[in-house]
Amino acid sequence: MLVISFVIGYLIILICVLVSVAFLTLLERKILGYIQVRKGPNKVGMVGMLQPFSDAIKLFSKEQSLPYLSNFLMYFFSPVFSLGLALCFWMIFPIFFNLIDFELGLLFFLCVSSLSVYTLMGAGWSSNSKYAMLGAYRAVAQTISYEVSLALIMLSCVVMVESYDLVKLSNYQDCWWLVWGFFPLFLVWFSSCLAETNRSPFDFAEGESELVSGFNVEYSSGGFALIFMAEYANIMFVSLISVFLFFGGMIEMLVISIVILSMLFLWVRGTFPRFRYDKLMGLAWKIYLPLALNYLLFSFSVCYGFFVVCM
């Protein structure tokens, strides 16, 4: 019975996530349209509400091209694996359906997010294209640079709460959100999340000006659509994790909080130009890493001080 309830609950969450991904793409196109003083999609359905489904039908019905010298199995399965990992994140979603109770949910998030870089590398390598391979190289180097500080930022919050469980993180922040004490850390976390999801201004794996379209340049039809869906599912899940880490995981306003943080991702894309690649490397190693280490020491000292006072 538990297995059946888990499967049904997980399927409901996956359906909700996939529908949300569809409308997040519409929201992005609308926001970018208004930022650029135009309307965005408004023809298909009422005020363009059916545009995501029209795009999905168009993408999945187009002819699938296959590069002649590509590694077929890796080329075919990399987008599927990418979307699968993006949906695996939602297994630790602790609300409503009583899914698997992850006491180590944040560690699971770090493990799965570390695996996601292999999908970019596999897609770039298996395409047997110089441009796709360059995009894959840049994605791997980018991931190594910021994931260290990303893990340390998360560890600073974990030290304060003394748990990796999202529910305990939420309960700890009933009276006081961690963002008030860790606001500089939240800014570093948010910019690292932009790099984690390959979003502007850190979308170096997809630099159109120098890499044509980056690691996915050889993909069309369904393969491109799966990579696209995985990116937007990651944006929503990173927004969810950010709400639980810094804003208390407010159950009553969880959906609104995720939408607001996702809109920040879209606003940044419409506002800032692409960062220079070597600048990101310096930013991650020379600024983000020392700041994350200092806040980690601060968290340890605060917890130790409380322990001494209680003793």
From TrEMBL:
GO terms for molecular function: NADH dehydrogenase (ubiquinone) activity; NADH dehydrogenase activity. GO terms for biological process: aerobic respiration. Keywords: Membrane, Mitochondrion, NAD, Transmembrane, Transmembrane helix, Transport, Ubiquinone. It is found in: Mitochondrion inner membrane; Mitochondrion membrane. Belongs to the complex I subunit 1 family. The chain crosses the membrane at residues 6-27, 72-92, 104-123, 144-164, 176-195, 237-267, 287-310. The gene is ND1. PANTHER family: NADH DEHYDROGENASE SUBUNIT 1 (PTHR11432), NADH-UBIQUINONE OXIDOREDUCTASE CHAIN 1 (PTHR11432:SF3). One of its GO terms (cellular component) is mitochondrial inner membrane. It is a multi-pass membrane protein. It catalyses: a ubiquinone + NADH + 5 H(+)(in) = a ubiquinol + NAD(+) + 4 H(+)(out). Core subunit of the mitochondrial membrane respiratory chain NADH dehydrogenase (Complex I) that is believed to belong to the minimal assembly required for catalysis. Complex I functions in the transfer of electrons from NADH to the respiratory chain. The immediate electron acceptor for the enzyme is believed to be ubiquinone. Its EC number is 7.1.1.2. Signal peptide: none annotated. It comes from Carcinoscorpius rotundicauda (Mangrove horseshoe crab). This is NADH-ubiquinone oxidoreductase chain 1.
